[in-house]
Amino acid sequence: MKKLFCFFFILLGIVVALSTEAFSQVDLDVETGVVFSGYNDVRIPGDGGTLFSLSDELEADPGAFYRVRVLYNFNDRHHVGALFAPLSVDSTGRLDRDLVFAGETFPAGTPLEAAYKFNSYRLFYRYDFLRKTKIEIGAGFTAKIRDARIAVEAGGLESEKINVGFVPLIHFRLLWRFYNRFAFLLDGDALAAPQGRAEDVLAALLFEASDKIDLKAGYRIVEGGADNDEVYTFALINYVSFGAIFHF
Q1: Strand ranges (E), 21-111
Q2: How far apart are CA 50 and CA 46, in angstroms?
Q3: 195-215, pLDDT tens digit by residue?
Q4: The domain that contains 160 carries what CATH number?
Q5: Which of 64, 74, 164, 194 measures 20 to 30 Å from 115, CA to CA?
Q6: Residues 6 or more apart from 168 whose CB is under 8 A from it?
């Protein structure tokens, strides 16, 4: 885990080091709110575990979240940034059948405590191919490092599956200034492949509070997963999001 943090912050340092006078603006984007589970289906191992739901068969309580993004804008159309987006959801309950999970068997009816963690570290680049007074549209690519963990604990038994890996994504953004200081923002990363899929998309209303601060409120969806011999996991996570973008 320490190596993962070191790697991410080294890359972030490279981005910061690139911020010379050629950069016209630095943005700090902070976001918080409430996160709650849609579906969250798991089978570990993918070819022999018990398929169960962390949200339908167990109870997943809503929780708070936060995300931090730093963005450098230069040459009008080019943007480079870094994102830290931690996510953690805890579930409790019982199953009416034995649970085979990551090499351990939990008897039916046992009170279960499950933890779902999916932290995300990203570096991205975007080029705005359309920039008008009312509308901006851009696209690029994202390099994502996922730090995932699913764990189950009950009656002195505990088992977990940890997965840390690299995921390439397509980055996109649409900003529509539809009325005075109000704008609609659609911003996200997404990609689908035979190995799995991932989507992280925000639809939000922006209000230009001043030249230095934009306020935002909206709905974010994080969805995706993978299906292979080691793991089957597909989740839909919903966010009620509030935040601010500070322009320096």
Answers
A1: 23-43, 52-53, 59-60, 63-74, 78-85, 88-93, 99-101, 104-106
A2: 9
A3: 899 999 999 999 999 999 999
A4: 2.40.160
A5: 194
A6: 141, 142, 143, 144, 191
Residue ranges making up the domain that contains 238: 2-129+142-168+229-247
Do the beta carbons of residue 99 and residue 105 sit within 8 Å? yes
CA distance 8 to 166: 12
Please tell me the distance from the alpha carbon of residue 204 to that of residue 184, in angstroms, as a whole number.
6
Is 134 domain-assigned? no
pTM of the complete model: 0.88
> How far is the C-alpha of 204 from the C-alpha of 218, rounded, in Å?
4
Count: domains in the chain: 1
User: Does the bond joining 45 to the residue before it have cis omega, within 30 degrees of 0?
Assistant: yes
The DSSP bridge partners found for residue 232 are: 43, 227
pLDDT in tens, 65-103: 999 999 999 878 999 999 999 999 999 999 999 999 999
Let me know how many helices (H) and strands (E) the chain has, helices first: 1, 15
Q: Contact 138/186 with Cβ under 8 angstroms? A: no
